[in-house]
Amino acid sequence: MAYLEGDFVLRSGKRSSFYLDKYRFATRPDVLAPLGQALATAAAEAAPGATRLAGPELGAVPLVTAASLAGGLPFLIVRGEAKDYGTANRLEGIFIEGETVCLLEDVVTTGGAALEAVAVLREAGLTCDRAVCVVDRQEGAAPAFEEAGVRLTPLFTIGEIRDA
Length: 164
Known about the structure:
The protein is of the alpha/beta class. 35% of the residues lie in helices and 30% in strands.
């Protein structure tokens, strides 16, 4: 359903013969609801001390919303850049400095966008040393997360998806 073959350019700039179109699962209530439950469960197991979830805009927003509804933890949205109007926040939502946050992400390749979100959370005085993603493409994200002091827990790896 979300696994597509062809010639694609990824966010990292790499070319790939396959693409995981997160919008094919994040926009369907029949898929999003159980996925939200799975993410909430994985986040609770990976980061039992977390008091909040967080997700980078735009792709992770439906996922973190679904996980928040399923697990009961409030969440933050990490903007790619601060908006230039209103509050000009980079983090949307209410938090208390020092809280522990578990980052949720859709698909990770090198981990660039998710690790940027971790940096924003940490700059705001939050602790973020755990992340859960729907799919790890197994192209360097896990070691990059480890180097940043974050343990990455994927629900699925690309190897598992291809084997299925």
